[in-house]
Amino acid sequence: MSNVLTITNLGISFATDAGAVKAVDDVSLTVAPGEVLAIVGESGSGKTVTAKTILGLLPETATMNGAVLLSSKDGSSQSNIVSLSKQQLRQVRGKDVSMVFQEPSTALNPVYTVGWQIAEGIRAHGEFSKKEARAKAIEILGRVGIPDPETRVNYYPHQFSGGQKQRVIIAMALVLDPGLIVADEPTTALDVTVQAEILDLLRRVRDEFGTAIVLITHNMGVVADLADRVAVMYEGKVVEEAPAQQLFSSPQHEYTKKLLAAVPHVGQGIVRAAARAEARAPGWTDQAPVVVAQDLRIEYPGRLGRPGFVAVDGISFSIRPGEVLGLVGESGSGKTTTGRAIAGLTRVTGGSLKVLGHEMHGFKEREFKKFRSDIGFVFQDPASSFNPLLTIAECVAEPLVVHGRASNPGAARARVNELLEAVQLPRAYGDRYPHELSGGQRQRASLARSLALEPSLLIADEPTSALDVSVQARVLELFAELQREFGFAALFISHDLAVVDILADRIAVLYKGKLVEEGTGAEVLGAPKDPYTQRLLASLPVPDPAEQALRREGLRKLRAAG
Amino acid sequence: MTSNSDLAAPHKPSLFSRLPVVHQLRQSVGLQRGMLIAGLIIAGLFILTAIFAPVIAPFGFSQLRDENGRFGSQQPPSGAHLFGTTVGGYDVFSRVLWGAQTAIFVIVVAVVLSIFAGVVLGLVSGYFGGWLDRVLVVVSDAVYAFPSLLLAIVMSIVISGGRSDLIGGVLAAAISITVVFIPQYFRVIRAETVRIKAEAYVESARVLGASNGRIMFRHVLRNATRTLPLIFTLNASEAILTLAGLGFVGFGIEPTAAAEWGYDLNKALSDVTSGIWWTSLFPGLAIVLVVLGITLVGESLNDLADPRLRGRRRVAQASGLVAETSVVPGGTLIAGPGGLDGLESNATHPDNGLETRP
């Protein structure tokens, strides 16, 4: 059989304010029917642009050359996407190729029912009456695993959970039975446990519908789980292309090797954490903890007459000086709320939370202010945590100026330079504006700012989740190094077990506002007791296809059991 | 891969080319550039006329006679009176030129007054929220609900009893316009402040223990004022129209105190039916031209500020350099005064921001 998709010598450039920028450079790829091709790479490697070209979705600022040949599923027609008119493109989209988007909550229109939205796609291609389209919508919803599709076809998007929304979007993509689906980071916005389910569904799509999938992702675990063949992109070029098993077992290109080495594994940090625990001075456990939470409860007020939303429901934990506590949980588990409460950004509504000996329940900003110099905070998104109009040096100097250690940013420059060097940024970077730094560099600058006052407690809220794998590895390394050097206690919040494992002395697992398990890395990750932790751990895909297949079986058993 | 050394320091554009309007002018291409330049030329002519009116104008704005005696009323255009004379015997050409001075005076006073009041109110209201915010929003909504000309008339009666000398008249017109404009600035700044308040860098300042004043003025204000030049130009043209409207309905400035286009139009009403076209055409044209010029500038600035509307030169096929991986796409490019976030959205770099959460 011929290929569903053949890309030859594709090159794409964008017109920007600073002249032409090349995004894709001489890329050639093929996808056979019923095959899953994963395109992996870091941000800016051109993988998303390549994927969008397949659907002809590039903006008007783009120019391209080369050929993108797309065959219909039965092989009866073939078209070159690059040369199609807008009308012809519309014909091809949905019928021959369709797309699954990253963010299921924004890809659905909130004012129409999902049934209407699926039918809309069907009816755009003519052939079906309203009734038939609805029947087809119900059928496809059932096939992607939405229970009770006859009633739920009339539901609005907000009545579905994130994972179900992604199922609906996959159903939308499948409904006209295209030969190829382009899935752009289909699981990135989802929690790990949901991610595993969606990956299962995509595998079924390939097997049952015989649809080929182009999977765009940066997550090597997802690749190992789903892909038959992998293309690694770097700086707009395909640097390596190989069957999945072969790529993971014997990567050829230097970049692929580096990329694979940077992926964090569960179990990496256990030895390190044990060594650190050994090295503690005797009597360390008797020291007064930096943070003590006792039945901590945080409730967000509801609308008038409605009960509030309980984000954190009676959790107790403590962080001792110099210790790193990893807080893991899915979105909505209350982990970020806990971190914000410790920093005094969210009000505690019940129980007790003592930070540096200061009670946070009913705290007054004025009394807490003097403790603030002892708390550092690293935010999730390095892009927005800097004032875009101040230079890096001014931003890093801000805590020094606020707490009166320097009269103005200029006077603090010497200290700022020291800090920048501590986080391995050249001094000259202090004169740059935040947008002139890459994500990883900005996150390092953010670390420098949080350490400026040498705090005894650092709260890091998903500090690496916005970064690429290779950059994440370096930032984590740096974090560990700084922690050793400065000896601060830290609350490290993350949704990624593997990341937490690398840094944390102890790990606490949150689920729906409750603390389900707490212990050292070896205890929690080695022999999890709580069923939720077990499921979380089993859902985490590992970058090795063979091992991942085994884990998948394990997860299936676990799910069947519980 | 990111390393520290291989990134050369980015080229800094000179201060001149980063100035608001100059920056946009350099950025623009094609039709947008044409619109902007046309607008700038008209607006420039307007400002020059206003400044040099005493030099260019052959007569004073309230001059009725020269050494040859009275001008005579409703004289058609001639060598002595380029645009003819009005029913009251004034020289139309001179009054049109002098009118530019009054107009610019009113614009400056009105916009300056409303910008300061609107920005401060919006900042405080948006940052602190609570009951103050609610009251201010209700009041500004109430002001919106009034027809602006009616409100301006009421204000002008309150301030000066209807008509007065130059300073009084200009102030009355300017303040009445101010009242109408404050809610606009208030709303824009408040909306921006509410948005910026939730940004991570403001939270980060709060974690540091920075005071409210410091956060408001150092972190919020400067980031909230990005859209002001746009509203400024659009409001300036509206100010002229309101002033002309005030003059036209008879609440303008006395002809002996200053030249005012709206007042002249009003007095020319009866001339139109009797075939005397010059008394109404030229003041009318002046209003249209100035409003057109300023609006052109405002609209093109508006388009240029939005990357989705901004035109670009098309690039040659597959040209340009591949951006360095691991550097946020567009991150190392040189941005304008608002910073890259202000000028660039994801639209120009389709793969930007798509991989934010592993």
Concise description?
The complex is a heterodimer of chains A (562) and B (358). By secondary structure, chain A is an alpha/beta fold. Helices cover 39% and strands 24% of the residues of chain A.
**Morphology call of chain A:** globular
Output the number of helix runs of chain A. 22
- Low-pLDDT runs of chain B: 1-10, 324-358
Tell how many strands the DSSP assignment of chain A holds: 20
**Amount of helix of chain A:** 25-40%
The CATH class of the largest domain in chain A turns out to be Alpha Beta
The succession of helices and strands of chain B, N to C, reads HHEEHHHHHHHHHHEH
* Total beta strand runs of chain B: 3
Overall pLDDT confidence of chain B: 74
Specify the overall morphology of chain B: globular
Separation of the first and last Cα atoms of chain B? 17 Å
Strand content of chain A: 15-25%
Largest sheet of chain A: 6 strands, mixed
**Count of discrete alpha- or pi-helical segments spanning 4 or more residues of chain B:** 13
